[in-house]
Write a structure and sequence with these properties.
With 366 residues, this protein is of the alpha/beta class. The chain is built from twelve helices and twelve strands. It has a ten-stranded mixed beta sheet, sandwiched between helices. The chain has a two-stranded antiparallel sheet with strand order 6-7. The protein is globular, with a radius of gyration of 20 Å. Bound molecules: nicotinamide-adenine-dinucleotide.
């Protein structure tokens, strides 16, 4: 394999701090395998607004288009909160990136090592072996993008707002395919989450997922659950799930619940994958931590870099097919965390070993 070329968009707040650690760990890990990384850095988010007057400059888009993947930090912060909603860093950088590259599948692992059970708000006896599940969320359809989407004045002075939830069968099949591939690499179980007792969309969702699995993956165990029940079951017994498959808004909410029960935002990575193949014959994707820019701890060497490092590992796995290298980085993160670095502390700004020191420890565990 020639150079691994990826765009690096550190963004704002803790983004650049945790990105520096991730790049160092990725470089050390790949060097040992004789691979050469070619990260190309570009501005996105608040920093891009300050430097170029727009959250997603043309130059950044060009660099991303010429790369095989995007490693993203996080964007936004108090400095840009007074901008009109459409110009806010997250909305004006991240959403257009997802749209531009048709990143329709969001994979969010919910992972809590057994050694860190105390970091979870759940009672230890509910999760004696920690937590290990994945949420596959459809990312480019449903209520967030359907048209019409507007607020209108009504005769008589009243107003109404409308959002449209819309899914095509083909869109549901595409995301189901990603869930199948994920389930095949895990415990072969998919729980499809919908609201088929109320929503037409969910009726089509359930029918399509059922028929698609019957034809393409009959060996996978498929169950269905209403979203309200799924929210309760996640808090009651998260390990009953292996792969959760769901639409955009339900996935948005459930994956945040997953982040909470796993104890630390600073540990959770994510991948957003598209249909496009990169030069290496793998999926082009955007990889980012689940958390935001954490303005409260930015610049203090307190941010937990694990989520960014683990996002880098996901990039190696999905966009470069380097499964073993990804496994090695994930194992190094786990050993670091288990070896006395109290993730709960570093994740929530208490006493801490420091971002950079944690990075060095991960690199030493490779
Ligand atoms: P946040 O995730 O930034 O912070 C929530 C809490 O978690 C804070 O106490 C923070 O210190 C802590 N935290 C988050 N990541 C951490 C890490 N790696 N290590 C240690 N602690 C960590 O969420 P917020 O406060 O709601 O948002 C802050 C800013 O980030 C806002 O401008 C928001 O728009 C932006 N944001 C961006 C993204 C993104 O770029 N994808 C996602 C969420 C929020």
């Amino acid at each position: 394999m020639d150079k691994l070329k990826f765009a690096v968009l550190p963004g704002d707040g803790i983004g650049p701090e945790v990105m520096a650690v991730a790049l160092e760990v990725l470089a050390r890990a790949s060097e040992a395998d004789g691979l050469t990384l070619e990260p190309v850095e570009a501005d996105a988010g608040g920093i891009a607004i300050d430097r170029h007057g727009t959250a997603l400059p043309e130059e950044t888009l060009r660099i991303c288009s010429e790369s095989d993947a995007i490693l993203f930090g996080s964007v936004g912060g108090p400095k840009w909160e007074s901008l009109p909603p459409r110009e806010q860093p997250e909305r004006a950088a991240l959403l257009p990136l997802r749209k531009h590259f048709s990143l329709f599948a969001n994979l969010r692992p919910g992972l809590l090592y057994p050694e860190l059970i105390d970091a979870s708000p759940l009672k230890a006896d509910r999760i004696p072996d920690g937590i290990d599940l994945v949420c596959i969320r459809e990312l480019t359809g449903g209520l967030y993008f359907g048209q019409p989407k507007e607020t209108r004045d009504l005769p008589g002075g009243d107003r109404e707002a409308v959002d449209t939830m819309i899914y095509k069968k083909s869109e549901i099949e595409l995301i189901t395919d990603v869930a199948i591939a994920t389930a095949r690499s895990r415990k072969h179980r998919i729980c499809s989450v919908d609201k088929a007792n109320v929503l037409e969309n969910s009726v089509l969702w359930r029918k399509t997922v059922t028929e698609y699995l019957a034809v393409h993956a009959p060996e996978i165990e498929l169950t269905h659950m209403y979203v309200d029940n799924a929210a309760m079951q996640l808090a009651r017994d998260p390990n009953q799930f292996d792969v959760i498959l769901t639409e955009n808004m339900f996935g948005d909410i459930l994956s945040d619940e997953m982040a909470v029960i796993c104890g630390s935002l600073g540990m959770l990575s994510s991948a957003s994958l598209g249909t496009v193949e990169n030069r290496h014959g793998h999926r082009f994707g955007l990889y980012e931590p689940a958390g935001g820019t954490a303005p409260d701890i930015a610049g203090k060497d307190l941010a937990n870099p694990c989520a960014q490092v683990l996002s880098g590992a996901m990039m190696l796995r999905f966009s470069f097919g380097l499964e073993k290298l990804a496994d090695r980085i994930e194992a190094a993160v786990r050993r670091t965390v288990v070896d006395g670095t109290r993730t709960g502390d570093i994740a929530f700004g208490g006493k801490s070993v420091g971002t950079r020191e944690m990075g060095r420890a991960i690199a030493n565990h490779l």
